């Protein structure tokens, strides 16, 4: 699956849809593919503070546990309850319905564009 | 059938859930054409999944799956003393099985630890086939070869020339019966059960594919009915395609190692490197009966096995949890504040839809129904000791 050009990316295989000082966050199709079928998602609580580069959630497949890293420092404003009850959304629509959290942040972090992320994954 | 350690059960950053490998199955091009994802398994690049490992798991339980397990090791043992040699070299009494029969066995070291777990087929009066885990191929060949002293026997590693395809699931029989080019060999007629339909579990029949000799065992590592097909590497891809053609209308899907692991775990089958290793005695893993203490003569590991293990040695148990958070290999188990064991394998069971695990625990908490706490990445969750297997197929 091509990496959408309207998104930005981290080296930890997360994507961000930045809108002003807030962003929607998910994991990339590449990461979802590597994990396999996702069967359990644990996300931070709404209102919690997160620090860029720290683990804030878990995405478990039958075979693996993937850690969700905070891509920015900020506050969680929304979590995707649908993906908690239907974890398969991460595989089915990683860049859409499989989004994980929304965060507000003050500092704009250094992120990758689609071309740089695609080069990183070599696909 | 068993196989070596499955990689990556611990917590890894998503970016590290991948690796490379130098060796390829004779079916590699077939898997690439099917769009498989690959994983390094004992040095082999093997299909981990083709699309969805959950869908593949369910296909094996409800219809059929086809696995490439060509990375496994095939070692032939022939000669006038072959039976006596195997009785000495392995834990079981392999001389006692009938031609065509298969038996699960163990290769022990002098200390009574497990070098490998094996399936052994008797193919003739003086011919046995030992099937070892890919990751233990060389230790197994070395140990067997080393033990030939004084026996008129020939141990030959045929792994590189042999492909192994498993067809597993309730539709497996019908698929083999409709596979073009696959026939039973003429001498199959001499066997007590001379058709695939009547072939019993853990028995085999000689067969041909497009005229080339091969072996069909009613064996597997999934907890379902099914067959394992040993064929020379040159004909592996054609056989795979012929099986796929026969399976097209019978729900057959290509299945990878990810679902193979969840299938064997549900069936309560041990995996070398997880439940079995060099320092664990068979009796601790519930495999005491695999060691034939009553057979006459010496065998490697006999003295240590007779001595037994201490009363407080950890024992293998099944565990079930609630919710969706799976205990995984190496997670610690507690009773109150005391550490009482460690998980060896665990997953959210695709069939049962709750977490299942196998674990070595202190005998004091091994009674069925005992509740222990598993530390799941910092959170302690209750798990209950349960009888194995977690899943048994309905028998006709």
Provide the number of structural domains of chain A: 1
The whole-number mean of residue pLDDT values of chain B reads 94
CATH superfamily of chain A: RNA polymerase II/Efflux pump adaptor protein, barrel-sandwich hybrid domain
Overall, the morphology of chain A is: globular
Major beta-sheet overview of chain B: 7 strands, mixed
**What is the overall number of helices of chain A?**
4
CATH architecture of the domain at 14-69 and 161-266 in chain B: 2-Layer Sandwich
Strand order of the largest sheet of chain A: 1-2-3-9-8-5
Low-confidence stretches of chain A: none
Please give the oligomerization state of what you see: heterodimer
Number of strands of chain B: 22
Percent of residues in beta strands of chain B: 25-35%
- Give me the strand/helix succession of chain A: EEEHEEEEEHHEH
For the terminal residues of chain A, how far apart are their CA atoms? 9 Å
Structural class of chain A: alpha+beta
